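> forwarded from #structure-qc
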């Protein structure tokens, strides 16, 4: 079973894991940053990332943890680094982690730096992942309660499209789920128009663009 690593994770950590001769596969992951098959998922946050994800408009931490817990039987939150403002951030950090542990029932690991993070991931993978048959990460179970949330969840089912890109697509092409006409000419025009608009989306890779076009137009 390979250790799946999200494409947005630091190259430093990926290189450290590769030096340990682990079976690494870097790809876009819908949920989690480090995944062993379809059971264990680790969401990695630096302290600044953790705090920012609490105070941003979308309160992304709780959404990420919700998806992580709904998708994987063994979800883990790994918090990396030290606080720049010890008194303020330590109190805030303790409050966040208390909620994660007691309310969300998610295990927490604290690491000092990327080196210790890589050591923890290696140890967990060697303990649980090595020797088991290869299994693909499951499709993330994203809860959606509004039309916009449902559209975002649908877009994220395309490999290579995460929440950030999905939001960009919906903001730039709000009518993407509206088919214009049924005859061949109108369909061809729709496909050309949609492809032109998708090419303007920053960060949308060619493979994901082509797959999304097939989903929407075939």
């Amino acid at each position: 079973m390979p250790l799946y690593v999200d494409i947005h994770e630091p190259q430093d950590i990926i290189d450290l894991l590769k030096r340990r001769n682990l079976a690494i596969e870097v790809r876009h992951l819908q949920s989690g940053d480090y995944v062993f098959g379809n059971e264990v998922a680790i969401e990695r946050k630096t302290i600044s990332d953790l705090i920012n994800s609490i105070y941003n408009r979308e309160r992304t931490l709780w959404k990420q943890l919700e998806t992580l817990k709904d998708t994987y039987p063994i979800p883990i939150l790994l918090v990396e680094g030290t606080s720049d403002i010890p008194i303020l951030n330590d109190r805030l950090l303790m409050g966040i982690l208390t909620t994660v542990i007691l309310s969300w029932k998610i295990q927490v690991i604290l690491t000092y730096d990327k080196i210790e993070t890589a050591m923890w991931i290696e140890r967990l993978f060697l303990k649980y992942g090595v020797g088991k048959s290869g299994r693909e990460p499951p499709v993330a179970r994203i809860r959606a309660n509004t039309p916009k949330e449902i559209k975002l969840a649908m877009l994220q089912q395309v490999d290579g499209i995460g929440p950030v890109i999905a939001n960009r697509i919906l903001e730039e092409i709000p009518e993407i789920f509206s088919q214009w006409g049924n005859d061949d000419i109108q369909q061809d025009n729709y496909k050309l128009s949609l492809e032109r608009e998708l090419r303007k989306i920053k960060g949308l890779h060619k493979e994901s663009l082509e797959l999304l076009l097939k989903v929407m137009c075939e």
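QC bot note: The mean pLDDT is 84. Strands lie at 3-6, 24-27, 34-36, 40-46, 74-80, 107-111.
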